Predict the structure.
Amino acid sequence: MRRISIVPAVMLILILAAAVPAAAQEAKSPLSLSLEDCIVKALRDNLGVAIQVLGPESAAEGVNAAQEKYIPSLSLSYQSRKTENAAFSYLDSPGDSTINRSRNYNFLTATQALPTGGTMNLNFTGYRTTTNQRGITIDPRYGTTLSFGLSQPLLKNFGFKINRREIIVAKNNLGVSEETLKNTLMTTVYSVESAYWNLVYSIENLAVRQQSLQLAKDLLEKNQRSVEVGTLAPMEVLSARAEVATREADLIQAETQIKSNEDQLKLLLGISEPEDANYPAVMPKDKPTYVVRQVALEEALAAAIANRPDLEISRIGIESDKLNLSYAKNQVLPEVNLSASYSSPGIDGTRIFYIGNPLEGNIDYTVPGDISGALKQTMKFTYPNWNLGLTLNLPLSNFFGRANLAQARLNMRQALLELEQKKQDVYLEVKNAVRSVEANYKRILAYTTARELAEQKLAAEEEKRRVGMSTNYMVLSYQRDLANARISELNAIISYNVSLASLERSMGTNLKAKNINLSDYAPGLD
């Protein structure tokens, strides 16, 4: 690892102190953060991340809602009824009324949707009826029935995939939400890295400008003393003063750049107004260093194809389009439905025996009965009943179904082409990122050499001026060259770090490289 340190740490503290009143500095200290601290804080407090975290949670509830389709439904009911009407039979006395009472019990009704598209139901019902009509041989009467039913499509709406379509789509939506959150985290990490290094650059740039200004002031002071003793023409002082004024203007611009970059980083970190008021400045802990990294284009491209969230979102979309195409194909098939049922009824009650004609109403004796007798018949399947049927439905026209099928095929084709286009875009992005890393590393080597030579040239020129073989103009020019060389070297190092962050993002590996897991910021996700 190589690093560049433009000025001592004491100089940096003095520079930052100049931007804030001394009284405020005593009361409030800068917020000192490393790059890792900034990334952690941004992923925790950034509003954009907080918004995207809710996406997978909402999508997960959508999956739960879709899965309710296959949760069996149970119902129970009870109904009591009384009817009273005027007697209309010649057997009844004038003015009498016919009274019927009934109680209906729905002990259990269970309905279950099947993954094949069918529906199965189980019913267990019972009743009790009484009446005052003449000639009834069982009163009260009890009845129970246990029945099973099945309805199953055989062509249209048949199949596991077709009938789990809503669940599969909901899970795909969950996958898209997770990848969208991942992409947001990756973008946030890159943005924080870029903003952090830009702030480091602006602070270091201010330090270089400050040092350059101090050199110009030192030279101005020497020139003024030389003019006072008569060894230098007054004109030389004017050029030195002009250079000092120019470098003071550069210093003001550098201070403004610090504040702008600082505000950008604070925005990404989600620093609230109270926090902003408590910390007058953000002080990066990390210095502009660099680690040489060699990345092969083929490896970077393979990593991007495997890890990029946008490509994974497209792949998930294609899976949904495939499912929609299968569903559209199924919907143009004719309807052939199978229905089957099996039931076992049971009847019992108090049997009434009459003397002579039952219509006369003269009861001889009764044999008690209750619901237990009906239950025995039902559970022993004493009287089995069954039904089996097929229904064929052929529509005269299926225009809309065929139109939906054609649209599903076009959507599928479009999704495949969009994925290929995205792969081409990724290839170009990764290629440019790799090239940028290589170019910025070469720039570091070149500007480091230029800075070292500029230091040697300035030292030599100052020595020549000391012995009267050079002018103030040449010394000021070499000072300016040295400041520019230092800034160029610093810019190359910062650009190299930012280009590495851009490469990690383009490969989709910056979260993995920093040991960041989705589950750390969105519980329940892997």
Q: What stands out?
A: The longest helix spans residues 399-466. DSSP finds 15 helices and eleven strands in the chain.
